[in-house]
Amino acid sequence: MNRLMSVLLAGAACAASAQAVVVGVDQGPAGYLAFMNVFELPANGGGYVFGSGWGVADLNASFDNGAGTLTLSPNTIGDPNPFWYTPSGGPGAAGNKIMQANLYHEVTDSMSGMSVTFQGTVLSNTFTSAHVAQIFIRDFAADYSSSVDTFIPLVAGNFSITQFTIPGAGRHVQWGFQVQGVNVWSTDTGPYGTAVIATIPAPASLGLLGLGGLVAARRRRA
Fold it and tell me: How confident is the model at residue 172 (pLDDT cuts 50, 70, 90)?
């Protein structure tokens, strides 16, 4: 048997024996985290400006638990400063930054070295070309200095993505949604579209499967 075949068979054996996690789209906002990255417009060089944790509502992520939906909308900033808008903030103003909104769950340690599958249903996506919406699983090093990522476009219909996470203490596994595009004044979001995703009650959204059944429990960081 040649070396390449040995490597492929070993990899397949590891994948087959890996513990498996299946996660869905919980109702919220409890248990969700939010992070915003801000960039200059491409016309201004597109450079990174800053990133920080935000409130879920500040991402324009709206949960309707009665209807079982999550609606993602373009990001808005109420600050009229020219840093954010040209010539300044107000109805009809042009956004002056690219905002990358991340809405996600995160666990530390409990999903390391596992096969993680994130699945659900996108009911609609009417975002225009001004915004790009994606679904992701991300596996971060303990200090967040690096990550291994799986992204797919957010399109209407059922979705399922799987990533084999790296074993190691302190690693952070995230799954959720990202919307990136120009910031929009709050009264002007309608023409830019939205995305609507089906949600399910939190206890039903996580299945942890091992070779013999249940192997772990979900951990959330508030």
Answer: very high
